[in-house]
Amino acid sequence: MTDTTSSAYRRLSHHLDKNSDGYGPLRGTLGTARMGMIWLAANLVVTTLLTGTLFVPGISWGLAVGMIVLGTLIGGSVLVLVGNMGTRTGLPTMSLTKGSFGLRGSFLPVAANVVTLMGWSWVQAMLAGVTVNFLVEQATGFSSPVLFSVLCQLLVVCLAIFGHTGIARVEPWLALVILAFMAYIFVAAFLAHGPAEFAAIPQDVEAGWTPVAALDVVIATAISWTVLSAEFNRLARTQAAGMIGSGVGYMLSTVLAMTLGATAIGYVVLDGGEALPFDPTVIVAAFGAPLAVVIFLSVMATNTMVVYGMVASVVNMVPSRRITFLPTAIVLGVISILGSTWLALLDRFTAFLVVIGALFIPVFAIMIVDYYLVRSRHYGRDILRGTGGAYWFTGGVNLAAVLVWVIGAGASLLLTYVVPSPIGATIPTFVLSALLYLAWAAASGRIDRSRHPHVHLLDLPETERTNADR
């Protein structure tokens, strides 16, 4: 590096660490409207849109929309509850797992989270690259989807490097632009074919979709976003701002994006085309550049948050001055850019969602029960320690939480692939995991029945303890 480059690097690194894009809690400053716009932009994304294309014509268009709404309400409730833990404490999602899994036991969900988010970043960069490549190839004849995937992810990494303040500034504007283009596409679709025509699209039984399967996928989508819920809800100034903003923003964006996907693929079917699910070029060919703009901007908005979430997870694993935001962002960013060349992953997207659900539904069930029921909505400053203290359990690991996690993940896979449940796999897995963890806490006398005033972690004294922590 030259002296100028080195100086700029140090200034940026210092700025990010000073503004709490490093280890420990962060005090939020954003109101309800800004939080809502951040979450609105986050899930107005190509993967959510293309998930909607999976359901039609496997199930009817009207039923698909119904399952999208129901699944979003159920999954969004989990997202809001976990996100509120971030607002109350100032900690990101994976750092909060230390309360239930232990200071070292949390390394397991953190590792799973980084791998999952990396997969998300690859998938979204590839879809943006494929879309840009489709337009460029039509205009010039030049085709290189790998090149455009890499370029899209490179831009995302550059945006993510500026941390949460950069995201807070950019996301709301991207949301407004995306919404405008989505409105145009909805109007074009329904002017060409009325709602009754969409509802009358013949169901394709051979596609293998059922209403319950669609519901599971929609809930799994919410679970996949919950890994970032506390990261961004800790930016909220108040609990109301975080819960209302994330709830309305996430639910509105998911319903709009998935319904747009189901409508777009229904439009293709009504025009006599072939319903190829999870292929952006099919619907871009039908709607042209406006839909391509939606896909590209949505990837910029969402993948920036995904890369930031990966970095926050790693930085908050342990208190260490050697693990800081900027170098971690660069390393993970380079990996995400290289991985965006693996286009074959797009063929495994549904299986990818199933794995995310199996891994993280039990984790979030454990987190919610531990924080709201067992710990009486309070984590002490010991959660910021590297060793010892109230969240050390046995050698830094809560073996009970790990066991419940394994049982829950196994049950999810069993109910998905071996003994399909009539009510899907996600809801039974969540209930089973929550009940098992609550039963362990009750049997071991760990439930704290005292009432704690809400105090942000930054406002707690260094020596703060509770009866339950001792």
Automatic annotation (TrEMBL):
A GO CC term attached to the entry: plasma membrane
InterPro entries: CodB, Pur-cyt_permease
Topology with respect to the bilayer: Multi-pass membrane protein
Keyword Membrane: yes
Cell location: Membrane
Keywords, sorted A to Z: Membrane, Transmembrane, Transmembrane helix
Pfam families hit by this protein: Transp_cyt_pur
Gene3D superfamilies: Hydantoin permease (1.10.4160.10)
Membrane-spanning residues: 37-55, 61-82, 103-122, 142-162, 174-196, 208-228, 248-270, 282-311, 323-345, 351-374, 395-419, 425-443
Gene Ontology molecular-function annotations: cytosine transmembrane transporter activity
PANTHER family to which the protein is assigned, alphabetical: CYTOSINE PERMEASE, CYTOSINE TRANSPORTER CODB
Family: Belongs to the purine-cytosine permease (2.A.39) family.
The protein's name: Purine-cytosine transporter
Organism field: Arthrobacter bussei
